Amino acid sequence: MAYGLINSDTMADSSGGIMSPISSVMRNRIINGSMVIDQRNAGASVTPTTANATYSVDRFVFLASQASKYTAQQNAGSITPPVGFSNYLGCTSSSAYSIAAGDFFGFKQPIEGFNTADLMWGTANAKTVTLSFQVYSSLTGNFGGSIYNSAGNRVYPFSYTISSANTWTTINITIVGDTTGTWVGATNGAGLQVFWSLGSGSSNTGTAGSWGTTGFGGATGQTSVVGTNGATFYITGVQLEKGSSATGFEYRQYGQELALCQRYYERLDGVIFQCAVGGANRETSWRFCNDKRATPTIVLNSAVNSPTVDSSFTTTNIVSVYNGTGNYFSANIQASAEL
Amino acid sequence: MYKLLPNTPLKNEPAQCILRLSDNAFIPFDPDNTDYQAFKKDLANGVALQDDTGTAMSAADITTFLQGLK
C-alpha cells in the first residue's frame, strides 16, 4: 500500500479541534520572535551605537555604522499589534540621514549553531528555509535584509514589499539553503544570522534572491528607513523554519521563551546581600537561572559598597560576588553570553 | 580601555577575566565569549590595557600578556 504526503498548515478533527501536522518542537529557529521578552529595557527606548551591541527586546541586536540615527523600543508608538500578537519591536528614524556607501543600519538575530546544524548548510544536502514575519511601516516600497554565516562571507540578500503604509503586512520569504561556504555546525557559535535593514549603503548591499559573498546589509535598491525623519518600522511574529512554505507562528509559553532568552542574557535585579561575619572579604554566589551559551560577561549595576566579581569563575552557571569593605553589599547583576 | 584584575582575594588564584572600564564589565577568558573576542581585537588595534594597579602597560607587556591567553 502506497502512502501519500500531506502538506497542510493545520488539520482539524471531527469536532473542529486543531491538530498540528508538524511538530512544534524547535520549528521556529528564532527566539523571542513575538517580541515579548525585554529583560534589558522593560519597554524603554534605546539608541543604537556603533558598538553594534545595543539590544531592545531580547535576542535582537542593533547594528549601526553611525550612532543616534534611530531608536528602538518594544511597542514603540503604541499601535495595535497584528492579530494574535501582543508585542512588536519598533524602530523610529531620528533624522533624514543620507546613507553613504559604507553605512549599514538595522538589526539581526544570530542563531546558535546547535539550532541550525540540521539545516546542513554548506553541504549538498542543504535544506530550504522560510522566513516569515509581520511588518508595519510609515513608508512603502521594497525593503531588504539578509541571511549570512558567522564569517559574513556567505550572504543571501532578500527583498520584500510593503505596499500599504501603516498597515500590518505578512511577509514570507523562502530561501534555498547554501550548498557551499563554511557554516558553523552543531556548536555554540553563530550558525546563521538574520538581518533586517533600516538602510544600507551600496558597499553593503547585494542582489536579492541569490547567494553571494557580500551584501549583509540587504538588497540593492531597498528603502532607507533612516533616510526619513520620523519614519517607523515595526516587526513581530518572526519565524525561520525548515521547508519551502511558511506555517503558522509557533507560540511558546512565556516561561519557555524567557528560558530560551536566558541562555544568552539574564539579569537579577534583586539585592545581593551578605552579612559581615568577620574576615577581610564577604562573598555570595549566584547560580544562573539557565546555563549560558558560553561563560558570560558580568556587569554589576546599582552597586553598594563596591562589590566585585570573583575573577576565578570559570563555569557557565555560577558566579561569585564579593567585597572587602562594608557590612553588606548589593548590586543588580547582568550576565551576557550573546552571540 | 581594559584593566587587569589582581589575584582573587578569596582563593588567591590568577584572575580569569578582564575588566572593561567603559561599563565595568567583567569579561571571562572564554574564546566563545564575544566580548572576549572583541577584547583581543581591541588590543590588537592598540586599545590601552592597564595592569591591576591602573598603570598603562607597554606594548611589549601587552604582547606578552596576549601570548598567554587562550
In short:
Chain A is mostly beta strands and 339 residues long. Chain A has one helix spanning 254-262, and strands spanning 11-12, 18-19, 54-55, 61-64, 70-74, 89-93, 104-112, 129-137, 141-148, 155-162, 169-175, 190-200, 232-242, 265-268, 282-287, 297-304, 308-309, 318-323, 330-336. Chain A is 3% helix and 34% strand.
Task: Describe the model.
The complex is a heterodimer of chains A (about 350) and B (about 70). The termini of chain A are far apart. With about 350 residues, chain A is mainly beta. In chain A, the strands form five sheets. Chain A has a six-stranded antiparallel sheet with strand order 3-4-7-12-9-10, with no helix packed on it. In chain A, strands 5-6-13-8-11 form a five-stranded antiparallel sheet, with no helix packed on it. Chain A has one helix and 19 strands. In chain A, β1 (about 10) and β2 (about 20) form a beta hairpin. Chain A has two domains: about 55-260, Jelly Rolls (Sandwich), CATH 2.60.120.260; about 265-335, no CATH class. The radius of gyration of chain B is 11 Å and the shape is globular. Chain B is an alpha+beta fold and about 70 residues long. In chain B, β2 (about 15-20) and β3 (about 25-30) form a beta hairpin. Chain B has helices at about 35-45, 60-65, and strands spanning about 1-5, 15-20, 25-30, 50. In chain B, about 30% of the residues lie in helices and about 15% in strands. Chain B is built from two helices and four strands. Chain B has one domain (about 1-65). The longest helix of chain B is centred in the middle third of the chain and has 11 residues, at about 35-45. The model of chain B has no long low-confidence stretch (mean pLDDT about 90). Chain B has a four-stranded mixed sheet, with helices on one face. Chains A and B meet through β16 and β17 of A and β3 and α1 of B.
